[in-house]
Amino acid sequence: MKLTNKIGVIVDSFGVGVREGLLKAKDAGAEGVQIYAVKGEMDPENLSLAARKELRSYIDGLGLEISALVGDLGGHGFQVKEDNAWKVEKSKRIVDLALDLGTNIVTTHIGIVPHDPSSEVYETLHAACEELGQYAKSVGAYFAIETGPETAADLKSFLDTLSTNGVSVNFDPANMVMVTGDDPVQGVKLLKDYIVHTHVKDGLRLKEVDPRDVYGAVGYAPMDHEKIAEMVASGAFFREVPLGEGAVDFNAYFAVLQEIGYTGYLTIEREVGDQPEVDIRKAVQFIKQYR
What does the H/E/C string look like for the chain? Predict the structure, then answer.
């Protein structure tokens, strides 16, 4: 097996701001970057057209490209009908920003897809994703749902009911391993028609956990990235670890991505750890072993 996929890094994983993070990503050997675009300097409302052109030019000048933006608005995802008007609108603006910066992919968490398609939460999620998917499709883009909160089978069943593939998948094998216990290789095979972006991350599942306690749900606390990081760091239920030290079988994972003809980015995400830059550099070298 010889990988030809480009290697990406989530700039925010360095914890040093966008510009310095871009420099670190380049220095670590990445070819592309993924950037959070929901608040602060990367909020679409804070970036004029001139600022977007300047940022794109800066990234081009480093010899990098953007693999995707992160448009994760947190909370209960799109499970709460009353919140969806502003969340859907903001998500559309993030897609517009992505296109201005040279990518057509925005990754997000939508909230756990219920197993029961007749439930109110399922119908609320469906209505939001249908609108998002149609908008993305109309501009040649994708909202990519990150795997992990539900099984690959439940996610595929949900995606199959939407009228377009404008809502697709950002495949994260570690989330599956750590939270649902799903098999990433079988997950890739199931979701092969929807995968437009992937994360390269590793983890261990230490004991069974209710996904709603991790990702939030109606009737539960909302999703909170800091809370997830604390859960990961505490190691009570699962632990995110450097590549090759967890339960993700990367030989099999990379092989099955090749098998389905995936040619997109392998983007490194490191959400915890005292030395993220060290771990990211090692991760880049880990992937390069397969080239």
Answer: CCCCCCEEEEHHHHCCCHHHHHHHHHHHCCCEEEEECCCHHHCHHHCCHHHHHHHHHHHHHCCCEEEEEECCCCECCCCCHHHHHHHHHHHHHHHHHHHHCCCCEEEECCCCCCCCCCCHHHHHHHHHHHHHHHHHHHCCCEEEEECCCCCHHHHHHHHHCCCCCCEEEEECHHHHHHHHCCCHHHHHHHHCCCEEEEEECEEEECCCCCHHHHHCCCCCCCECHHHHHHHHHHCCCEEEECCCCCCCCHHHHHHHHHHCCCCCCEEECCCCCCCHHHHHHHHHHHHHCCC
For residue 217, what pLDDT band results from cuts at 50, 70 and 90?
confident
Query: What is the C-alpha separation between 238 and 226, in angstroms, rounded?
Result: 15
CATH topology classification for 7-289: TIM Barrel (3.20.20)
The Cα 18–Cα 35 span in angstroms is 8
Q: For helices 276-288 and 18-28, give the axis angle rounded to 10 degrees.
A: 40
Q: What tens digit of pLDDT does each residue of 52-66 get?
A: 999 999 999 999 999
What does pTM read for this prediction?
0.94
Write down the pLDDT at residue 207: 85
Lookup: tokens for 2: 């010889």
What is each CA distance from 240 to 170, 175, 188, 272, in whole angstroms?
18, 9, 20, 7
Domain residue extents for the chain:
7-289
